[in-house]
């Protein structure tokens, strides 16, 4: 009797399989047919690298059809595209924004931007926000968290749907180095208290910057850093890591992968919380020991990334300074330093 039942269910399973098989074949034919009807064959698809998006008939999740051949062009031979720990390095020409946007849209992702405008640096906010609305993670939910001691001087900038400005009043510090370093403390505190409840990812950037081209969801990952424009092709020996062993930010001569910029990092809220908390602790220990790391928060960030490898790395397209010229490998300048008079703006 028992064997009989088992046999029966096997037959039922086989029948189901056949029904599914026929169904999938029909779907394939419909798809093929619609391409012919719309006058675009597979070869045209391949040649032009077209990207199709269709809705499953009768509703359901959107799905994508595209030529697999276009993958072959998503690579660069002139730059490093992958770290030895398999973290992608994001350069123009290595990714497809349409696929990525669809993936992040389906997950309904929201992004928090932390930006500090303390004392005179409020003057950078207008251009920063205007250009961010044009280029930063367009089409997704964004909260701009503006940390400032001058809430009244935050400009009002027209925002697209799903995007908000949140002004957070915070203390200032006399020295610009302290203003810069204390960002780690404030980001970690607010991450724990607030950001964790409001956004999925955090992007932490300098304010003396403007967006100049698309900076989209391709930047997002659990933990990401950006190659410093002055050192992306440099050897380890020339990185300006902190070398004094008394500092918590010290990196031995034979360690370290890249030199990361202090002005652009991020990840999930929990990862940014861990990073900023650790960096702040290092900064405080240094203060107690009467030392300050050579490049302040940037030195501590670099130390953190040696032992907590980023899961994605942004190329210098994402943090460029025109003082560095316009090298061939740089196909886009997405986020640019705004020239400033250091002496005048920092005092
Ligand atoms: C592009 C880049 O990688 N920049 C890094 C670089 O310096 P920068 O020379 O770019 O430093 P900076 O003067 O832009 O200061 C860093 C940030 O602190 C804030 N700020 C500073 C002073 C002030 O009075 N008010 C104020 O709001 C503001 O958000 C500014 O963008 O090295 C610094 C540490 O030495 C930081 O790691 C910066 O992130
Ligand atoms: Mn800066």
Instruction: Write down the domain tally.
Output: 2
Number of helices: 8
Based on Cα principal axes, name the global outline. Answer: globular
Number of DSSP strand runs:
12
Counting helices, strands and paired strands, the structural category is alpha/beta
**CATH H-level superfamily title of the largest domain:** Spore Coat Polysaccharide Biosynthesis Protein SpsA, Chain A
CATH class of the largest domain: Alpha Beta
- In spatial order, strands of the major sheet run 3-11-9-10-7-4-5-6
Query: Order of helices and strands, N to C?
Result: HHEEEHEHEEHEEEEHHEEH
Strand content: 15-25%
Major beta-sheet overview = 8 strands, mixed
Overall pLDDT level: 87
- Note the gap between the termini: 90 Å
Oligomer category: single chain
Distinct ligand kinds: uridine-diphosphate-N-acetylgalactosamine, manganese (II) ion
What does this 3D model show about the protein?
An alpha-L-fucosyl-(1->2)-beta-D-galactosyl derivative binds at residues 228, 240, 298, 321. One of its GO terms (biological process) is carbohydrate metabolic process. It holds the Pfam family Glyco_transf_6. Its cofactor is Mn(2+). It is a single chain. The radius of gyration is 25 Å and the shape is globular. Strand 4, helix 4 (125-135) and strand 5 (141-148) form a beta-alpha-beta unit. The chain contains eight helices and twelve strands. It starts with a helix and ends with a helix. It has helices at 2-37, 42-48, 97-106, 125-135, 176-198, 269-288, 297-307, 342-346, and strands at residues 51-55, 62-66, 89-90, 110-117, 141-148, 163-169, 201-205, 209-211, 223-226, 264-268, 312-314, 335-337. The protein is an alpha/beta fold. The chain folds into two domains: 2-73, no CATH class; 89-346, Spore Coat Polysaccharide Biosynthesis Protein SpsA, Chain A (Alpha-Beta Complex). Bound molecules: uridine-diphosphate-N-acetylgalactosamine (UD2) and manganese (II) ion.
